[in-house]
Specification:
- By secondary structure, this protein is α/β, with parallel strands linked by helices.
- The protein folds into two domains: 115 residues, Aldehyde Oxidoreductase, domain 3, CATH 3.90.1170.20; 148 residues, TIM Barrel.
- It is built from ten helices and twelve strands.
- The strands form three sheets. Strands 6-11-10-9-8-7 form a six-stranded parallel β-sheet. Strands 3-5-1-12 form a four-stranded antiparallel β-sheet, with helices on one face.
- Helix 7 links the parallel strand 8 and strand 9.
- It is elongated.
């Protein structure tokens, strides 16, 4: 985490208040405990925040560890005013990132039960200003963060196709971008998928299609000799209740927006013990 990021997060929470004039600058010890089972994420960021405040900490855990309700994640010691200034920020990081990592891990385990080679990926449906931490939490949970931003790959979506047409959009992308970047096309029907596969793209996203439609699409692409070298991604409406069905269709990736936009934060608390 950059220094300016820490200070920006703290300014949002603390404003211009000199908290050390309100809370005693008394040496104390506190513990951060978790209230729910899950996957730990955000610990590295929390340690940097405590370093910023010159608060000492110790822990037996690492990001990615499985944790259970009641575990003491960190013990911290230092000036009480500084520990309490950091409290909400560190709990927010732990809660948000661990919640995403936990949900991601649950979905990854569901997929591995039917096909260990299929990746569970995130999307750009993230919190503005917090994307890199949410993407990191996905990776900690065993998922694939997908592209970080528009610049990492070209995805030709439905609105691009409406503006330019499928063939012209793919032609422009191939003419304008470097060979080092992949071209992905979002399609919503089997017919569009077959057309896109014939037009020199790297990835086809099968969006808002049923699992049976996706399976039939994979079959037809294979039958027509278009499957080899092509990455197939299923997306849209995928959740814990249907992810196994999509993972069984023959695609390479299932992307799931809910692992960031709907992940429930894991519960943590900080309590002074001395």
């Amino acid at each position: 985490m950059l220094l300016k990021e820490i200070e920006s997060f703290l300014e949002e929470d603390l404003g211009q208040e000199d908290y050390e004039d309100i809370v005693p600058f008394t040496a104390c010890k506190a513990e951060i405990t978790v209230k729910e089972d899950g996957i730990l994420a955000g610990l590295a960021e929390v340690e940097q925040i405590f370093d910023y405040f010159s608060v000492h900490y110790s822990t037996e855990f690492e990001d990615g560890n499985r944790i259970k309700s009641g575990d003491t994640i960190l013990t911290v010691s230092g000036a009480g005013a500084r520990i309490l200034k950091a409290e909400r920020l560190v709990l927010n990081f732990l809660g948000r990132m661990s919640g995403i990592a936990t949900l991601t891990n649950e979905l990854v385990n569901e997929v591995r039960a039917v096909n260990e080679h299929v990746r569970v990926a995130g999307t750009r449906k993230t919190t503005p200003g917090f994307r890199k931490y949410e993407k990191k939490a996905i990776a900690i949970g065993g998922g694939d963060p997908h592209r970080f931003g528009l610049y990492e790959a070209v995805i030709i979506k439905d609105n691009h196709i409406k503006l330019m047409g499928l063939e012209h959009a793919i032609k422009r992308a191939n003419e304008k971008i470097s060979f080092t970047r992949k071209i992905e096309v979002e399609v919503e029907s089997i017919e569009e998928a077959l057309r896109a596969a014939e037009l020199n793209v790297d990835i086809i996203m099968l969006d808002n299609m049923t699992a049976s439609e996706v399976k039939e699409c994979v079959r037809l692409l294979s039958e027509r000799g278009l499957r080899d070298g092509l990455i197939l991604e299923a997306s849209g409406g995928i959740n814990g209740g249907n992810i196994k069905a999509f993972a069984s269709t023959g695609v390479d990736v299932v992307s799931v927006g809910l692992i960031t936009h709907s992940a429930k934060s894991l519960g943590f608390s900080l309590n002074v013990v001395e």
